[in-house]
Write a structure and sequence with these properties.
0% of the residues lie in helices and 43% in strands. By secondary structure, it is mainly beta. The strands form 2 sheets. The protein has a 5-stranded mixed beta barrel. Strands 1, 2, 3 and 4 form a 4-stranded antiparallel sheet that branches.
Length: 143
């Protein structure tokens, strides 16, 4: 089950984040915008869903060393597992998208300017459901 509906689609090499593009000014938005163009210099136009570039370059990164407060969902009975957060610049869309690194990748493995690709990931799971999301993985890494 998708953690957030209509933010991504596909599987494997076809996995993509979904944004929206304004028909009037060509601005691209992620998270998607379905009501109106957020560009203050635009009078507005129809918004169409567009798949975003599957690769980008690291603009910035950090690690999450503490359990975030609610509404973040995590099991307080389990020990906190730090993870890397990556801000990725998608050059053709001219936007920066934030997401977690794939499990096993730490800030020691990352560098500003490094090419990364979007891949499906799991945000959390219980006995009945796995909530899917996206992760960023350094290009060329297959694990």
């Amino acid at each position: 089950m998708a953690a957030v509906e209509n933010w991504f689609t596909g599987e494997g090499d076809g996995f993509r984040l979904l944004g929206t593009r304004c028909a009037a000014c060509a601005s691209v938005f992620f998270p998607r915008e379905d009501a109106h163009c957020r560009n203050p210099g635009c009078a507005g136009g129809d918004l169409e869903e567009v798949p975003l570039s599957p690769r980008g370059r690291i603009w910035s990164y950090t690690d999450s060393r503490y359990r975030p407060p609610s509404p973040y969902v995590s099991d307080p009975e389990l020990p906190w597992e730090p993870y890397a957060l990556i801000a990725v610049e998608l050059e053709s869309e001219r936007i920066v998208v934030l997401g977690q690194a794939v499990p096993g990748i730490t800030v020691a493995d990352l560098a500003v300017g490094m090419e990364v690709e979007v891949v499906p990931g799991v945000l959390g799971e219980d006995a009945d459901t796995a909530w899917t999301t996206w992760h960023w993985r350094p290009a060329g890494v297959t694990a």
